[in-house]
């Protein structure tokens, strides 16, 4: 019984990682939210890029969601 409990705890630790947060971008024209496309930096780190164009309206201007409130409020 104790051995099974130890195995369960070990598995829980392996599975309890925090998933990476995907960057989100807001279309400046229609405010549709897009997930960033993953890519790698030359150093091998993951980064996210906005899409080439909005899937809703076709615009190509995006703002990171963390900057959206300041962008729209002209702050």
Automatic annotation (TrEMBL):
Domain of life: Archaea
Name under which the protein is recorded: Small CPxCG-related zinc finger protein
Organism: Halarchaeum grantii
